[in-house]
Amino acid sequence: MTTIVLLAAGASRRFGSTCKLQTPYRGKPLIRHAAQAVLATGLPALAVTADPAVENLLPEFRIIRSIGPQSQSLRAGLGAVDDDRALVVLGDMPHVDAALLLRLAAAPAPAAASDGDRITPPASLPRSMFADIALLSGDQGAGAVLRTRPDLHRVRVDTWLLRDVDRPDDLY
After folding, report:
1. Which of 135, 114, 131, 113 is nearest to 122 (CA)?
2. pLDDT of 114-159, one tens digit each?
3. Which of 83, 81, 23, 18 is nearest to 48 (CA)?
4. Which of 11, 67, 91, 92 is the most exposed place for a label (fewest CB within 10 A)?
5. What is the mean pLDDT of the chain?
């Protein structure tokens, strides 16, 4: 079984003084786009957050609190997974949909989304990788470990689907 880990604990430093995950995008807070894709899969899910205001936008999720860099949030999320694998989704990727998440969940793990040139989240991580990911530090995600894996399954998608929001201009 797969548990989805929605990472929503970033500091949004490049976005400015407001929390990007709360910022309206196409009629709802940015975080709700990824959250609704996760919920539409029907898979068990949890969210890693650092901000109570973001938590309030995710009432359907089991919340894991983590304050620190991305590696710490990822470690906290994976530590709460009881299943054989975790599907890591970023809260600032509003175009990711349930179909992609289900394709990744069904793919042999490890698996990551790819536009042909790069690998990006979302990514499916087998439990056997959790210990290696726990060794990461700073603002690193699982990509550092995934890139070393010759057995990585790349799930090909259009580049626009993998767009994330880092700056206010990314919303347009």
Report:
1. 113
2. 999 899 999 999 999 999 999 999 888 899 899 999 999 999 999 9
3. 81
4. 67
5. 91
Q: Indicate whether this model's pTM tops 0.85.
A: yes
**How far is Cα 172 from Cα 158, in angstroms, rounded to an integer?**
18
Asked if residues 12 and 76 have their Cβ atoms less than 8 Å apart, the reply is: no
Torsion of CA 41, 33, 46, 123, to 10 degrees: 70
Are the C-beta atoms of residues 6 and 38 closer than 8 Å to each other? Answer: yes
Q: Quick one: three-class SS letters along 86-136?
A: EEEEECCCCCCCHHHHHHHHHCCCCEEEECCCCEEEEEEEEHHHHHHHHCC
Alpha carbon of 134 to those of 77, 91, 123, 127: distances in Å?
Answer: 11, 20, 16, 11
Cα of 83 vs its chain's centroid, Å = 17
Q: Where does residue 12 fall: left (phi above 0), alpha (psi -120 to 50 degrees), or beta otherwise?
A: left
Confidence of residue 19 (pLDDT cuts 50, 70, 90): confident
Beta bridge partners of 112: 123, 154
Condensed to tens digits (0 to 9), the pLDDT of residues 77-110 reads 999 999 999 999 999 999 999 999 999 999 998 9
Residue pair 123/153 in contact (Cβ under 8 Å)? The answer is: no
